């Protein structure tokens, strides 16, 4: 790690403060501007609007300058030792970005989400020296830091998609594993490679769906952050790390743009839901490629994708573990990216609980489905992202408080979920006999749950053996629906106890017909019907009962299920599910989802050739073939975290903590 002494904002303040008080300044700087020295041999002074400092390209430049000079800038004022040309180009890009945004706002001042057409130029290359900007100091090149450059130019009619397939083919196919591939796997690899999207000739992601017969792909022609995770894992497990590295670095460039919805900007650090590569004509013959992110404002849910940043951190750790390339996570820009995501998630708000408070549709289920508040899927991703961050953050003066906060949150979160989200026959019986309206911190019925809430289906459905984490919890509200991803990821991340992990898989086995049926795996069980569907989904015609998010079956969930089964030594369960899926997916052209109670039909509005369906199967099969690799992707119980929690509970002296025996059952 380089010298990273202060949080970035502080550095900016210090650097400017220093400049403003510097005696080297003898020409008046207009209000709202600052000056900077640029150049290699003969330094030139530039006056730049302060607003540009918010731009990530500028911030990265500041980080690099800090690394280089600390606070001893050679000219006595803020100095960037890059070429003038480079600097001017950078400023032009920022200006272009600002102008475009102003124009969009001017044309459609009242239209919601008016910035959806915004083109955001980001840097073209990650580590190809000939395309790097010419930075003056040799160390900068040696460290191969990302440096924001102009977008690349190409000829008109260049394609972003499928160009990469041959490159990957060469890298991937000759890696011995190909020998025993089934027909389905062979087709899946071909399709996955065809789904690869390139930016300036480099692979950077995979489109969500790649069906040539689909005349209206909506936003399925974009690279979704969450959808890329199984693609990334499939490539990593095959020994192909470049696309994942590029994806991680390019999405990092999209983070924290001043994305504006009318007059409001979401928090810095937000990762987009998806991005697209657009081609912008420069003149008659030349075009420019730009990355155009969608932060959720164009998708139907119109909601910020909280899971994107969490998945990004999880994929970064997977990349590091599988490739052994630790240098990537140590880069200043990557460390800053992790911190920005954490700051967003850990910032103080009005929350009363350690679980992350989000709006409906902020994850894989990205349309209204009644999962606002503290949905399990977000909590389990949050927990594992915090565990990844704890592993990856470089601990120094600047980050030690953050690391402490992460540790405390991890302990509190695991206690909260283990204790209050867990449901089995015994717990239902407890809830059934709850006293309500207890006005006290000593309340047994801590969330004032009215027993009448227990739904009829649950009494019949809950098996004697097994249990699960409920979907959501807040005062007077328990969402008893079974959410597959949240439960499986609780196992993978060790958010739940080893005993609970076992019980969740027992329940999945006992309720196989409902949760696996003809196509693994049901996204939610059961579906919302009738009045409940009307009120909660707002009569969403895509989310009708037992379809899509509302009780549809999603083959992409196979890979997480396989990982959980391998972790728990239940490999036969994963094999059974993969066997059901493989031939059918191949025959049905890899649909996005299936409908009906058992997943009998291809989803009504399902896309075909859905990339995360394809990648999910490939990743599952590779994990089954190499179970030892799976251990790089899951987490074991962390006893240090439990200890922090037990200590904290004892200090509170609450009656709850006196239930020692019960507590130790829940915690371990
Ligand atoms: C749907 C899914 C979402 C996915 C996207 C692209 O919107 O709900 O989870 O990321 O399609 O496949």
From TrEMBL:
Sorted keywords for this record are: Carbohydrate metabolism, Glycosidase, Hydrolase
Q: What is its EC number?
A: 3.2.1.26
Q: Tell me the SUPFAM superfamilies matching this sequence.
A: Six-hairpin glycosidases
One annotated GO molecular function is: sucrose alpha-glucosidase activity
Q: Which Pfam families match?
A: Auxin_inducible, Glyco_hydro_100
Keyword check for Hydrolase: yes
Keyword field contains Cell division:
no
Q: Which GO terms describe its biological process?
A: response to auxin; sucrose catabolic process
The terms describing its cellular component in GO are: mitochondrion
What this protein catalyses is: Hydrolysis of terminal non-reducing beta-D-fructofuranoside residues in beta-D-fructofuranosides
UniProt function note: Invertase that cleaves sucrose into glucose and fructose.
| Family listed | Belongs to the glycosyl hydrolase 100 family.
Annotated PANTHER family: ALKALINE_NEUTRAL INVERTASE A, MITOCHONDRIAL, PTHR31916
Q: What is this protein called?
A: Alkaline/neutral invertase
Source organism (scientific name): Tagetes erecta
Q: What's the source species' lineage?
A: Eukaryota, Viridiplantae, Streptophyta, Embryophyta, Tracheophyta
